[in-house]
Recover the amino acids of this structure.
């Protein structure tokens, strides 16, 4: 909101001074685009600009497949170790 007021008042003032000029038309187009763009799309664009392009904020990338694979591997390894330590079977394997 502060950003909108800080830019809107000076831009509106200068656009009014040169009514019908290039700056007036550019501010009109910019304001219409700003109102028309859905907020979720604007959020994606701003996130890309600030985090990826300009590196102003940290970007967190998370490979969910690698995390899921590591979690499954850790779970299966720990269950195999606990069943072999106690001598029990998981039920899917048959003992001969």
């Amino acid at each position: 909101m502060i950003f909108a007021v800080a830019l809107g008042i000076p831009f509106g003032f200068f656009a009014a001074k040169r009514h019908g000029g290039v700056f007036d038309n550019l501010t009109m187009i910019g304001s219409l685009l700003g109102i028309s763009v859905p907020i979720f799309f604007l959020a994606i664009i701003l996130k890309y600009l600030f985090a990826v392009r300009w590196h102003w904020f940290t970007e967190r990338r998370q490979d969910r497949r690698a995390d899921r694979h590591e979690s499954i591997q850790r779970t299966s390894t720990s269950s195999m170790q606990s069943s072999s330590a106690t001598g029990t079977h998981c039920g899917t394997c048959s003992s001969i």
